[in-house]
Write a sequence for this structure.
């Protein structure tokens, strides 16, 4: 994974609350056995009509959303199924961060393992972002802050170990494999 | 004297390395369940890195999500209709063979939905840590296990190291008192709980369901309750083990036997939350006034008593959007809504007692004209047990379809779909937009309510037919 320190982008705003992972990537696309190519099906049932044609009024189909790598969504993003296909679809499409007031546990954990930043902000900041689609925003991991174009910066919570991995481009598997001695000792003490 | 919660005890016994401010805990996993949909990319990582499955003896595979439920496709030599699903099934077979993981494959007599067969085989036990690449892993908490869903990257972590990096969640006690009225089931109880705390109410928490109402539930009912913990945002839901749990587990094929059983029992009896233990949050629920519940919107928190009317939420655009998808308006009843499809099954309500409930309503009655009803047992074992009692004859004589086990119409990955715009009363767990098919409109309810609605062809309070 590439190290991430700072992300600067315009925002795409999807003003829907409780967006579940079935909306992010519908189940019929989960028969894949690879991680790639899911961006084509991101939000498939909102992006495309029943005839397969793009829905002109859906945010990602509008010209101004092109190139945005920060998605601002309504309250409580990523609930439901544990499918990691959801962050795979978002990153394959080009998103690098999701901003909401609350992000579901499993989705957040999956996102951090795929270089997708789950950014939780207060209602006030969130409200401002919702009202200003396309705003140029900076997300900085060194200071764990999100800066609005007004210059106002807000901190967001980020688990220190996940932050370390993101900033150094490390994955957790290497860390776990290096704990092998401790795992062996634990297994012996458990006697199984 | 220690004053620990059930969760705290299970967590602490599995800390290989305790968490620090800088790093999460290294948590040991006792049982890793895998299936065809969320494991292929994890095996790819093992191959890329030249790693083995560290504990194949603690890893157990089955196929359920994308598998067919039509008998001719499972046993008759007819091909799996969806080519990608067939490929996924084959890939699981290849991976399990290459990495030495036990697999209950498509035609195995004990195959079924992963969350049904874990407990059914006795693999799930009190005090264990159980994970699976599926959010409804919370089901296994009904036996006093700490069980939660993980993503595919974490599936790879557990395959390679038998461990996960985890921050310790907070605890939420849901204390339930009062007796459930006739016709009101565990499904109605958990829907009412989700309605009360909301779809994000349990985020960051492990729930422990407590109180006299929970103690009085049988194991099938407890699993229904824990199953939908994730629908309240909680990764895990737990119920302390007791005599009901031990009676359920005794004689299960993978449960400890003989002296090992006695020793396990001694350990399990230490697990329940100590008197005076503190939870981070507590919620009290009185179950005695509950009615059968039904959802009216596009998340499980949008739920009401079946006699109720859809609330008014002026100015709430999300609420309006959800109702527009469902074709409903505020202030109207959902009871009497004509129904096109009825689905009885899933890891929420695909166990024997659920099928008995549905059969008790359907006995001597017919599914209404124009309604398609699917009854999909949660496992091949449930199917055999149901057939031994003659339940399948009740379903077939009523005009319902009797299928082989699997996730089926809960998420429609195998092609068991609700058509666009159609209304489905479903015993599954998610009424999200498009969950059961593009444009499908899902009403979540109990097996009793589902069967009553099938008979009348309209959303029906099962107490009218009991």
């Amino acid at each position: 994974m590439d190290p991430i320190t700072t992300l600067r982008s315009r925002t795409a705003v999807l003003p829907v609350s409780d967006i579940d992972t079935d909306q992010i990537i519908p189940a019929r696309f989960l028969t894949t056995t690879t991680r790639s190519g899911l961006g084509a099906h991101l939000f498939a049932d909102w992006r495309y009509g029943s005839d397969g044609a793009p829905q002109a009024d859906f945010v990602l189909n509008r010209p101004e959303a092109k190139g945005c790598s920060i998605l601002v969504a309504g309250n409580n993003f990523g609930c439901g199924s544990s499918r990691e296909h959801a962050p795979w679809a978002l990153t394959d499409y080009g998103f690098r961060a999701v901003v909401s007031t609350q992000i579901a546990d499993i989705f957040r954990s999956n996102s951090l393992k795929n270089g997708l930043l789950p950014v939780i902000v207060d209602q006030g900041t969130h409200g401002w972002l919702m009202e200003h689609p396309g705003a140029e925003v900076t997300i900085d991991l060194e200071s764990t802050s999100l800066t609005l174009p007004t210059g106002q910066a807000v901190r967001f919570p980020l688990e220190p170990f996940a932050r370390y991995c993101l900033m150094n481009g490390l994955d957790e598997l290497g860390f776990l494999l290096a704990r092998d001695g401790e795992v062996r000792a634990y297994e012996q003490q458990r006697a199984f | 004297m220690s004053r620990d919660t059930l969760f705290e005890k299970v967590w602490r016994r599995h800390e290989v390395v305790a968490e620090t401010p800088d790093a999460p805990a290294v948590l040991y996993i006792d049982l890793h369940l895998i299936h065809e949909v969320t494991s292929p990319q994890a095996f790819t990582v093992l191959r890329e890195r030249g790693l083995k499955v560290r504990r194949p003896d603690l890893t157990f595979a089955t196929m359920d999500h994308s598998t067919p439920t039509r008998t001719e496709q499972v046993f008759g030599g007819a091909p799996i209709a969806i080519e990608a699903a067939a490929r996924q099934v084959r890939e699981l077979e290849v991976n399990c063979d290459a990495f030495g993981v036990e697999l209950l494959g498509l035609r195995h007599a004990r195959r079924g939905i992963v969350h049904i067969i874990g407990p059914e085989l006795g693999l799930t036990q009190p005090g264990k840590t159980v994970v699976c690449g599926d959010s409804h892993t919370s089901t296994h908490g009904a036996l006093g296990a700490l069980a939660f869903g993980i993503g595919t990257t974490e599936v790879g972590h557990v395959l390679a190291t038998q461990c996960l990096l985890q921050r310790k969640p907070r605890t939420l006690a849901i204390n339930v008192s009062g007796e459930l009225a006739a016709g009101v089931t565990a499904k109605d109880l958990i829907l009412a709980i989700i309605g009360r705390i909301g779809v994000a109410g349990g985020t960051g928490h492990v729930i422990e369901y407590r109180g006299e109402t929970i103690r009085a539930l049988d194991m099938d009912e407890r699993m229904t309750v824990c199953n939908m913990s994730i629908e309240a945002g909680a990764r895990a839901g737990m119920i302390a083990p007791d005599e009901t749990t031990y009676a359920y587990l005794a004689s299960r094929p993978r449960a400890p036997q003989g002296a090992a059983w006695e020793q396990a029992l001694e350990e399990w009896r230490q697990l329940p939350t100590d008197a005076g233990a503190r939870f981070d949050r507590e919620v009290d629920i009185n179950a005695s006034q509950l009615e059968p519940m039904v959802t009216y919107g596009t998340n499980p928190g949008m739920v009401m008593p079946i006699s109720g009317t859809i609330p008014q939420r002026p100015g709430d655009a999300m609420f309006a959007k959800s109702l527009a998808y469902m074709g409903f308006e505020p202030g109207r009843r959902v009871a009497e809504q004509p129904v096109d499809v009825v689905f009885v099954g899933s890891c929420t309500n695909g166990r024997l007692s659920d099928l008995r409930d549905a059969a008790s309503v359907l006995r001597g009655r017919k599914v209404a004209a124009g309604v398609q009803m699917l009854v999909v047992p949660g496992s091949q074992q449930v199917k055999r047990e149901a057939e031994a009692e003659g339940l399948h004859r009740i379903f077939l004589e009523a005009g319902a379809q009797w299928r082989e086990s699997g996730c089926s119409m809960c998420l429609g990955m195998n092609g068991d779909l609700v058509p666009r715009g159609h209304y489905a009363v479903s015993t599954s767990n998610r009424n999200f937009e498009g969950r059961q098919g593009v444009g499908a409109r899902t009403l979540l309810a109990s097996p009793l309510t589902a069967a009553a609605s099938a008979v009348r062809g309209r959303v029906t309070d099962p107490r009218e037919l009991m």
Notes: Chain B touches chain A through 66 residues (CB under 8 Å). The mean pLDDT of chain B is 97. Chain B is about 35% helix and 15% strand.
